[in-house]
Amino acid sequence: MPTLASHSFDAFVVSAGFLGDTAYFALGDGAVHLIGPETHVVQAHKGSVLAASPARDGKSLVTSGDDGRVVRISGDGTLEVLAERLRKWIDILATGPDGAVAFTCGRTAWTRDAKGVEKEFAADRAVGDLAFAPKGMRLAMVRYGGATLYWINTEGKPTKFSWAGAHNAILWSPDGKYVVTSM
Length: 183
Fold this sequence. Notes:
The chain is mainly β. The protein has strands at about 15-20, 20-25, 30-35, 40-45, 50-55, 60-65, 70-75, 80-85, 90-95, 100-105, 110, 120, 125-130, 140-150, 160-165, 170, 180. The strands form five sheets. The chain has a four-stranded antiparallel beta sheet, with no helix packed on it. Strands 5-6-7-8 form a four-stranded antiparallel beta sheet, with no helix packed on it.
């Protein structure tokens, strides 16, 4: 039977979810509360948490903030800094297969694989959202005027799809055959 528990925080909740049996709450003051068999409070960012996404394996949470950092927090509260872009607000991120992470600031997006290798992608306009394909290392990015698909591990030319308007979210179908955007 489910258990209901009330928790009160001193800052607004940016994102909430679960890492296994541990609930997480990423807050606007930069803290991440992990509430489960043990409770941990991790000060992930010096400012606000702007985005949070659980890793695909469900064992960690990746957050980004207005301090320009992207961090991975494990269920036991261990924090690892994945990337830093000083004086940048990292407000969009996505988690991918095998520990990959994508994040963006303005017109630039970066991917980082599990080994720490980064790759930079420039967009024509400010990036609205990012999503990894369900299998493999393909990244979808939306912007004003459409979407672009990139192969991360190759130097191939990106595939661009044009559709007038401001796209603000993107999602792959579970079989990886389609991408859907919202405006």
